């Protein structure tokens, strides 16, 4: 799929491509620094994100989790004065390169935000909006993708009889699954989730968590969460951030049962943050 980004951007690859990845790595982050004006919010972090896994980003408020997450699909470009230095390598390309086609990138690396943000349109149109923009016009094809995306987001059975009703008539939890379906419809490889269930009631939260675990079969998922139980329930790897530094990154089991760094243990046991 990324060939599309390459073709559209004509990026010259400045590095050898085949040796960059370990077999299961989908994103390789190298010496990533992110600034807002003069202020550095992420201090030169390096980590590999595994394919078909859930990676949780945890840490106290203001430690740089969302800033890092947004850099992965270049959402920080929308913030005046924001600047990223270093490399985020995805399928042989540095995502941070000026030549990257960010529209194509954001289709492959989709994002779902904390507050459900469906368009004030029908459920059907919420899914088809981006597809039409991408040039898919045929009704039968659109119908097929709508059903497929809603099924994958575990929402089809609840909405199949009201596809042309307003998305705003859905509950908060359903709206968030619709936003996930909207992202899935663009056929991403990576899904970024910024506290996707923190605004939801416990039952909707549980549905979204089940969905995330299910989705990792097909997608690589990176989730920012303040909820330690959530991180331990659904993620395979956990990265602990503090003041813009990546303090510890390991399997979720290790982070929660036997962390190497004292600060990690203090944070997950609720002693600060
Ligand atoms: N748009 C912005 N302009 C300037 N500074 C920003 C901006 N967004 C974030 N920051 C700063 O960057 C640092 C990291 O913020 P970020 O939102 O990434 O942290 P976070 O760990 O995601 O926090 P939270 O858990 O509260 O969402 C903070 O000091 C924050 O004030």
UniProtKB/TrEMBL annotation:
Coiled coil: none
MF-aspect GO terms: ATP binding; ATP hydrolysis activity; phosphate transmembrane transporter activity
Ranges for domain ABC transporter: 27-268
Keywords: ATP-binding, Nucleotide-binding, Transport
GO biological process, one term: phosphate ion transmembrane transport
The keyword ATP-binding appears for this protein: yes
GO cellular component term of the entry, any: membrane
Organism superkingdom: Bacteria
InterPro entries the record matches: AAA+_ATPase (IPR003593), ABC_transporter-like_ATP-bd (IPR003439), ABC_transporter-like_CS (IPR017871), P-loop_NTPase (IPR027417), PstB-like (IPR005670)
NCBIfam families xrefs: 3a0107s01c2
This protein's name: Phosphate ABC transporter ATP-binding protein PstB
Record organism: Neobacillus citreus
Gene name of this polypeptide: pstB
């Amino acid at each position: 799929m990324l060939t599309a980004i390459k073709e559209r951007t004509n990026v010259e690859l400045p590095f050898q491509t085949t040796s960059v990845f370990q077999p299961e790595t989908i994103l390789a982050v190298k010496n990533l620094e992110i600034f807002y004006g003069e202020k550095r919010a992420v201090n030169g972090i390096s980590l590999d994100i595994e394919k078909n896994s859930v990676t949780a980003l945890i840490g106290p408020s203001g430690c740089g989790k969302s800033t890092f997450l947004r850099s992965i699909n270049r959402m920080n470009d929308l913030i005046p004065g924001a600047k990223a230095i270093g490399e985020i390598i995805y399928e042989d390309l540095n995502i941070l390169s000026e030549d990257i086609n960010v529209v194509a990138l954001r289709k492959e690396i989709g994002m779902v935000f904390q507050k459900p943000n469906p368009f004030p349109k029908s459920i059907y149109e919420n899914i088809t909006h981006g597809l039409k923009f991408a040039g898919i016009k045929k009704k039968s094809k659109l119908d097929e993708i709508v059903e497929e995306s809603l099924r994958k987001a575990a929402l089809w059975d609840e909405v199949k009889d009201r596809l042309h009703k307003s998305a705003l008539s859905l509950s908060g939890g359903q709206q968030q699954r619709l936003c996930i379906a909207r992202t899935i419809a663009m056929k991403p490889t990576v899904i970024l989730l910024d506290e996707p269930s923190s605004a939801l009631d416990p039952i909707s939260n549980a549905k979204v968590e089940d969905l995330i675990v299910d989705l990792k079969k097909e997608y690589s998922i990176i989730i920012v969460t303040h909820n330690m139980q959530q991180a331990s329930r659904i993620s395979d790897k956990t990265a602990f951030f503090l003041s813009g530094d990546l303090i510890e990154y390991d399997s979720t089991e290790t982070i929660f049962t036997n962390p190497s760094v004292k600060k990690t243990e203090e944070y997950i046991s609720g002693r600060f943050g």
